[in-house]
Each structure stands twice: as C-alpha cells, then as structure tokens.
Amino acid sequence: MTYTVEVQSLMKSYGGTEVLRGVDLAIAPGSVHGLLGANGAGKTTLVRILATLIGYDGGSARVAGHDVAREAHAVRGAISLTGQYAAVDEVLTARENLTMVARLRRLSRAESAARTDELVARFDLGAIVDRRASTYSGGQRRRLDLAMSMVVPPTLLFLDEPTTGLDPRSRDQVWATVRELADTGVTVLLTTQHLEEADQLADRISVLDGGRVVADGTPEELKTQVAGEVLRLTYGDAATYGAALAALRTPEATGDPVLLTLDVPSNGTPDSLRYLLDTLAVAEASPRRVSMHAPSLDDVFLTLTAPTQEAHR
Ligand code: ATP
Fold it and tell me: Which atom in ligand 1 lies closest to the alpha carbon of residue 310?
C-alpha cells in the first residue's frame, strides 16, 4: 500500500535538545490517525515538519508520495491545516470567507460561487452564511474552518484539537463532519489532548513519548494492550470490604480502603461472575454494587507516557 504519510527514523533537535529521536509513522489513505502525547512530546514539531513549515535533521518523511524536504511545493499542494492554525477572517461572512479561499485557489468566479454553495450546504452553514464570522459560536466557526479547508479537498488534512471548547452537540456535529471527510477519501492527522476525541475519531493512534512512538494501534488494541476489563465491587462498610479482600485472595485484586471498592480483573463471562459472587456470598462478603469497567484511552495514556516529560525540558 502507498501510505499518505510515511515517516522513518525522523530526528529533530532544537539547540542541544533532541525533540524527535527516531519517529516512525505510517498513515493509510482515507483514515483518521490520532497523534497523542503529553505536553512537549513533539506533536506540533512533527506536524510542522510534515506541513513543510520547518526542516528536520535526519530520517525521512513523505506526504502524498512527495518528500517533504525535496518536494515541499508538491507537499503544500496536497495538505491543509486547520484548528489552531484557523484561517477564518472575522470581519467577513462565511460566504465571503469561502469565496475568498476559492478565488485564492484560482477557481473562476462562477466555480467559486458554486463551490461555496456546495460547502455551505454540506457543512450546515445556511442559517449564518451572510453574517460576519465574528458573531459565530465556537461550533459554527469550526465548521466554517473545516469547510474552508475543503474548498479544494486536500489529500491530507491536519486537525488540531477540533472540538476543544465545544458543547456536546456541536462536538458531535464536528466529529460527524470529520468522519464524513475521511469517508470521501481525505486522510486526517488529528492531534489532540482530548482522549475521548481520539477514541471516537481515530482509526489508529500513535502515542509519542520521549521523542519516539511508544505505541501504535487501533484504540481497541491499545486499550487491551495496557489493561483488560475490570469488575468493580463496591462495599458499604469496612468490615465487609475487609472480609471480601481476605476471601478473594487473588493477587490481581486491588482495593481502595477509602472508597471501599475492589477491582478484580475479569473476562465478563456469566460463569466467572457467578463463581466470584458465590465465593463472596459464602464468605458473607457480598458487595453492595457490581459494575464492569473497560479500560479507557486515559489508562493507555497514563500507562504509556512519562509523567515528568515537560519538567525535563
Ligand atoms: P503541546 O501538547 O504542549 O502542544 P507538543 O507535543 O506539540 O506539545 P512541541 O510543541 O512539538 O510539543 O514541543 C516539543 C519540545 O520542543 C518542547 O520541549 C518545546 O519546548 C520544544 N520546542 C518547540 N519549538 C521550539 C523552538 N522553536 N525552539 C526551541 N525549542 C522548541
């Protein structure tokens, strides 16, 4: 397969500090790829290199089949940046913003008008299309920003924290829009601190830490890699909690004596649950509540990334 993004052993230093220390990354066409990492892990640096905004010191990086160092012009023709790089002009309306981008991308006047109408419909901007962007809500502005990046659909779209600060409904709408873009064949590189966003949107995720990719996989693969499902038993009093801890005697069970909860690794089958609850009943240590917990991307992030990343730099 020809990957839209192919990065091998990429190195980048600022002064004497190595920020990227041999990064490998492969992103399939039409997929959404999440890039996770603590503050200062090097996500922005990697995106800037791929977007030809800065150079690198070693390794190789290709975007849409072009070398980012030697064929920067071709790479620029294949990419679009949104998010913190927002290009929306506040004093213009959505229609004017879209038409301006279309004209800058050398569409004719008639083509620009037609493309603007198409994008207004697709990104649900009809109600606000002739109002100044300065009056838009956060969600409306994000949708306009995305629409502007799609005037000429890029091969690769960089999205930086696309839903930060949005209410749940606007956030869902932006997520749905991003998925639609990927369905039309656009490859998306998503950088985010928001793990639920990565979980919802990304087909695959790379976790960057200490200048390297320390884990790469689908959200589900990453979650099962760090932890399995856990059965949480909640108690109402310390005596019963203590009796349960003694009765279980499994080294994997972890207890919280303040919250009076016990977490027991479980595969969730009825037989294993029955056995566990029977054992507890015999020991007169039945819990007040039982719930299943699947590992989240938060667990993945906390397990795989070093806590003191930024402090070292
Ligand atoms: P965040 O999540 O906080 O945005 P990030 O993962 O995007 O972080 P980068 O912005 O890529 O991280 O920064 C990686 C490291 O490189 C940080 O320690 C930062 O201080 C350093 N750095 C970034 N740009 C420069 C620069 N122009 N000169 C010197 N150091 C820099």
Answer: 18
Q: Is the Cβ atom of 45 under 6 angstroms away from ligand 1? A: yes
Which atom of ligand 1 lies closest to the CA of 208? 6
pLDDT at 304: 77
- The first and second tokens of residue 220, run together, are 């589900």
Q: Please name the residue whose Cα sits nearest to atom 17 of ligand 1.
A: 40
For ligand 1, atom 19, which residue shows the shortest CA distance? 40
What letter would DSSP give residue 213? E
Backbone angles phi, psi at 267, to 5 degrees: -90, 0
Q: Helices in 161-265 by DSSP H: which ranges?
A: 168-183, 195-201, 219-226, 238-248
Report the distance separating Cα 29 and Cα 190, nearest Å: 14
Checking if the pLDDT of 127 tops 70, the result is yes
Q: Tell me how many degrees the CA angle 106-4-112 measures, rounded to the nearest 5.
A: 20
Task: For residues 167 and 188, give the distance between their C-alpha atoms in angstroms, rounded to a whole number.
Answer: 22
Q: Which residue has the higher pLDDT, 253 or 148?
A: 148
Domains in the chain, please, with CATH? 5-223 (3.40.50.300), 230-294 (3.30.70)
Q: How far apart are CA 63 and CA 257, in angstroms?
A: 52
- pLDDT tens digit sequence for 187-213: 999 998 888 889 899 999 999 998 999
- The residue to mutate among 25, 43, 191, having the most atoms of ligand 1 within 8 angstroms of its beta carbon, is 43
Listing DSSP states for 57-82 in one string gives SEEEEEETTEETTTTHHHHHHHEEE-
Q: From the CB of 177, is ligand 1 less than 6 Å away? A: no
Convert 55-83 to b/e letters by CB count within 10 Å (16 or more is b): ebeebebbbbebebeebbeebbebbbbbb
The residues pairing with 274 across neighbouring beta strands, listed in sequence order, are: none
Mutational pocket test of ligand 1: of 14, 158, 161, 213, the residue with most ligand atoms within 8 Å of the beta carbon: 14
Atom of ligand 1 nearest to the CA of 193: 2
